[in-house]
Design a protein that fits this description.
Layout lengths: L4 H6 L1 H10 L4 H12 L2 H13 L10 E2 L1 H29 L9 H11 L1 H5 L9 H27 L3 H30 L7 E2 L1
Antiparallel strand pairs: 1-2
Helix pairs in contact: 2-8, 3-6, 4-5, 5-6, 5-9, 6-8, 8-9
Amino acid sequence: MLSHLFGILFNPSEEWKKIRDANCTIGKCYCGYVFIMAAIPPVSGYFGTTLFGWEIGAREAIKLSPDSALIIAVAYYLVMLIGVFSMGMMIHWMGKTYKAEQDLSRCIRLAAFTATPLFLIGFIELLPILWLNFVLGLPALAYSVKLLYTGLPIMMEVDDDRGFLFSSAVLAVGMVALVVMMAAMAILWFNGFAPQFVD
C-alpha cells in the first residue's frame, strides 16, 4: 500500500483509480499503510517535546517528561488509528444516502489515503514550534480536503455532483469530530490529566 504514497501526492486522480482497484482487505490496509503512516506524528511529537520542547513566541521552550510524552504519544497514535476506521465507517454508512454503497474496505482506504498529507506533516512535530506547525499544517489540511473531493467520486463510483455533496458531508462530520476531540482533551486537561513538564 505504501507504493501509492508518491502517486496520491503528485497524481491523485490516477492514483485513486489504482487504490480503488487494489484488492486490499481492512487488515492489509492497516498493516501496509495506516499503522506505519499514523506513527509519524506521535513518534515525531514524542521526540520533539522531550528533546526540544514547545516554543510559543519568545518564551523559553517547554519540555515534557519522557513518561508524560509517551502516554500522550500512545494516546495520539490510538486516536489516529481509531479516527481512520471511524471515518471509513462513517463514509460507508453515509454511502446509502448518496446511492454509493461500497464495501467497508474501500471506504477505509479512502479515509486512510485522504489523511496522507496530515500523516506526513507530522514530521514537523520534531521541531515543535507553534507558529511553524500552524503555517505548515494548514496547507496539509487543505491538500487532504482536496484529496477527499477528488478521491470520493472515484472510490465510491458516483458522479461529480453527488461526489461533491457526499464529500462536503464527510468534511462536515470530520470537522465535528475534531471539535469533539479537542473538547474532550480540554476536559481531561482540566480534570487532572495535564502532562508533566520539566525544566
